[in-house]
Design a protein that fits this description.
The chain has 6 helices and no strands. The chain is mostly helical. Helix 2 runs antiparallel to helix 6, helix 3 packs antiparallel against helix 4 and helix 4 runs antiparallel to helix 6.
Length: 197
């Protein structure tokens, strides 16, 4: 028969998150990272090379709000679960760094959800209207660039829209890559904590 549990062991088990919390944290983190990697490095490249540009843009405009909201929600839930499992009075440097990473991910996700992603989609819709009037938008892949270059040269309004799109698309992409990096670092942190596979 075992004797009383030493105070140190009891305290360690009191702060240990439950298996459910651990599972939820891993589920949200891996879902977000997997979705981000798939959308960024697989689906986007495949669709942009095999679909007419306007079809690709329309699909992106429909999917991205869901993508950005799911990313933001997962980032928020990851921070919440992590913070609940690591009280502030017991935070070490490693845990503080992890919380900062989650905050950065939330900020980048929310910026994309509420601003950059929406502005990019709105500008794409405006660009598509101008292009449709010129008979453009059904080209595939790289073949689409020369007619648009000519349109930018001849139409100052279209050129300004193109520049605005380039700016917001770059900012949105940067936020997205930042989220991928943050989630990758968080997964690395979790992997370093595994004692067995």
């Amino acid at each position: 028969m075992k004797g009383p549990v030493p105070i140190q062991d009891a305290m360690a088990s009191d702060t240990e998150p439950s298996h459910t919390i651990k599972l939820l944290h891993l589920l949200f983190l891996s879902t977000s990272w997997g979705m981000q990697v798939w959308v960024t490095f697989v689906a986007g490249f495949v669709m942009s090379r095999h679909l007419p540009r306007h079809t690709f843009g329309s699909i992106q405009r429909e999917l991205f709000p869901y993508y950005f909201h799911i990313s933001s929600t997962c980032a928020f839930l990851n921070l919440t679960l992590f913070a609940m499992s690591h009280p502030s009075e017991r935070l070490g440097e490693e845990h503080t760094a992890q919380i900062i990473i989650f905050f950065i991910c939330i900020a980048a996700s929310v910026l994309n959800t509420q601003w950059f992603g929406q502005v990019t989609s709105d500008v794409v819709a405006e660009l598509q209207l101008v292009e449709s009037r010129q008979g453009l938008g059904q080209e595939l892949g790289l073949a689409a660039s020369e007619p648009r270059r000519q349109l930018r040269a001849s139409n100052p309004g279209y050129r300004r829209l193109s520049q605005r799109f380039a700016l917001y698309h770059a900012l949105s992409s940067l936020c997205n890559l930042l989220c991928i990096l943050c989630n990758g670092l968080s997964l690395h942190h979790l992997a370093a904590q595994l004692s067995a596979l």
